[in-house]
Amino acid sequence: MLRPAYPIETERLTLRPFRTGDLEGLYAYQSLPEVARFLYWEPRDLEESRAFLREKMSASTVEKEGDWLVLAVVWRETGDLIGEVNLQWRSREHRQGEIGYIFNPAYHGKGFATEAAEVVLRLGFEGLDLHRVCGRLDGRNAASARVLERLGMRREAHLVQNEIVKGEWSDEVVYAMLRHEWDARPTV
């Protein structure tokens, strides 16, 4: 079980559970075609973002296998919601997890995704005592791959045309890190 103490602070960011007032910031990036491009969903309208926000607001603890922790990422300098980071407890028996992140393109290229994703990796390894954490992404998403590489994750697989996403064959790339690699890594 994982119940982080909130808020979680990094050098520049605050990570916390989503709340009702986050709708505008959430919609600002969920409505963009360039954000949805490599994800399973299409750009969302305001009502779809509102429904998704309700789901996100209840994802602040991980109690059982399959649960997702979903945290809002706020840039403290401006107070803006700039994205989200996620951690799923995929397997209790095998101590496996998965991380993910989505950021507003207005904040790309500043290291925010790496800074925030490092927090959920730490929560996975040190909070849930996971053995292995992976990150899966569309093979065309080079920027997301760079985030995982900066975190010290290793590219383990490139699955060629393994699924149809939005009507076209898509490659999937898998990165992973083991607990002993986390413990031995240089800090990001």
UniProtKB/TrEMBL annotation:
Any one GO MF annotation of this record: acyltransferase activity, transferring groups other than amino-acyl groups
Annotated N-acetyltransferase domain residues: 13-180
Highest taxon listed in the record's lineage: Bacteria
One Pfam assignment: Acetyltransf_3
Keyword Transferase: yes
InterPro entries recorded: Acyl_CoA_acyltransferase, GNAT_dom, N-acetyltransferase
Gene3D superfamilies linked to this entry: 3.40.630.30
Key words, A-Z: Transferase
Full protein name: N-acetyltransferase
Organism expressing this protein natively: Actinomadura spongiicola
Phylogenetic classification of the source organism: Bacteria, Bacillati, Actinomycetota, Actinomycetes, Streptosporangiales
